[in-house]
Amino acid sequence: MALSVPYHPYSCCLICGDDGIRYDEELTKTQKDLQRCSSCRQAIYCSRSCQRQDWRVHKRECGLLQDENSIALALSATDPRFLTITDGRSLRNQLVANISPTEPFKFVLRELSHFLRLSAKHWDPQGSNNSLIVIDRMNLTVEEAQIYHNSVDWVHLSSMLFGTLMVHNVVDQQAEEANKFCQNAWFQAFIVNFGEVLDRIKLFAILQENDYGHFLPDCEFPLIQMKEPILVGGKFFFPFGRTLIPKGKRCMVCHDNFSQSTAISSHDPNRTKSEELRQVPREVNFLPPRPNYQFLNDPQVNEKTAQRLKTWLHIVARTKRIPKEFVCSEDCEQHALYGRLFEAHPLERLNKDRSESDESDVDDDKNDNPIDRDKDGGVKDRVVV
C-alpha cells in the first residue's frame, strides 16, 4: 500500500505530488492534463498507476468528499453568501478565507445544533427537561467553540463532549419507551450524528496530544452531512442504527466468525446495558496501534509499531476519521481498546485472511474504481481547473 503525503490540499497528484506544470526548453509553461475521481471530483492523479496505488485509501475518503460536495451545492442554491461555491473544497476555502481557520468546525457544530432542535420535536414533543438539558449542553459547546479563532483546544473540547455523551445516556435511560434510542428514529439520528462529530473531535485531540497536529490542520475539519431518518410506510426509520459487517470479516481480536450480519453501532448508548447485548457483534474505533507494555523494550516490536502508527496517521489524515473495526463481544471490545498487541492495521485483513484479501483487492480495483474511463475502458484525462 502506497502512503501519500500526510496533509493534502487536493491540488496535485495524491501519490507523487505532480501538479502537471511543465516547462519546455524556452521556459514556456504548459499544463499536463491530470485525472480526477469521477465520483468526488476532488482526488487528483497524474497517471493510472498513481491512482491504482491510492485507491485502497481513497475509497475510504471518497464518500466524505461526496457528502461535502452535497452540502456545498445545497448551500449555493439557498444561501446568497455561497452562490459561487461548486464543491466541498471551495466551500471550505471560502469559510477559512472569509472568517477563520476554525470555521469549518464551527460550521459543523451549527449544523448539529440545528439538527438537534429539529429532531427534538420528534423524540421529546412535550419539550420536557430531557430535550432542554441536551439543548443547553449543545449551546455550551457552541459558545465554547466561539473562543477558538486560529486553533482549537481539541483535548479540552473532547473531554467536555465526553461529559455531554454521558448526559445523552442518562436522557436515554429516563425517556419514555417510545422515545428511547432503540425505538425512536429521530433520537437515533441525533445520537449517531453527535457521535460522528465527537469521533472527529477525538481524532483531532489524539493527533494534538501526541504532537501529530500537522498531519491534519484545524482548517481540514470534515464538513459532516447530518443523517436524517427516512419515512417508510408512514413510520420513520433510521438505517444507520446498526452497521453492516462486511462479508468474510472476522473478529479483530479472537478471529472468530460473526454470528450476525450486523453490528451494534459504536454510538449505541445501550451496548453495555444488558447481558444479551454484551454478546452481540459491535463496531469499535481502531485507535493508533501500540505494543503491549510487556514488549516495550523489544526493538523489533517498536519498529513494527512505529510503521503501523505511520500508516494509521496517513489513513486518518486522508479519511478524517478514526478507522472502524468489528469485534464479536464486549470482552473482545475491551481487549481491543486496552491492551492488545495489534497484528493488523485498518486497511488489511487479519493475517489468516491476507491471501483472500489480496485477491479481493484486485477485484475491488477492477470493479469499484470510480476514475473516469473512456469508451474503450481506458482512463480519461481531466484538466485541473
Describe the structure.
The protein has about 375 residues and is mainly alpha-helical. The chain folds into three domains: about 110 residues, no CATH class; about 140 residues; about 110 residues, no CATH class. It has ten helices and ten strands. Strand 1 and strand 2 form a beta hairpin. Helix 5 runs antiparallel to helix 6. The chain is globular. The N terminus and C terminus are likely disordered. It comes from Tigriopus californicus.
Which stretches are poorly predicted, pLDDT < 50 over at least 5 residues?
1-5, 340-385
Proportion of residues in helical segments: 40-55%
Cα separation of the termini: 29 Å
Count the beta strands: 10
Strand order of the largest sheet: 1-2
Specify the structural class: mainly alpha
Any idea what the radius of gyration is?
22 Å
Q: What is the chains' assembly state?
A: single chain
Q: Please describe the biggest sheet, giving its number of strands, its sense, and whether it closes into a barrel.
A: 2 strands, antiparallel
Average pLDDT confidence is 80
Shape, please? globular
Number of helices: 10
Percentage of β-strand residues: 5-15%
Note the run of SSEs as H and E: EEEEHHHHHHEEEEHEHEHH
Number of domain units:
3
Write a short abstract of this structure.
Residues 351-385 are annotated as: Disordered. Residues 13-62 form the MYND-type domain. The chain has helices at 48-78, 88-98, 103-123, 129-146, 154-174, 185-209, 275-278, 299-319, 330-338, 354-367; strands at residues 21-23, 29-31, 35-36, 44-45, 230-232, 235-237, 242-244, 262-264, 282-285, 324-327.
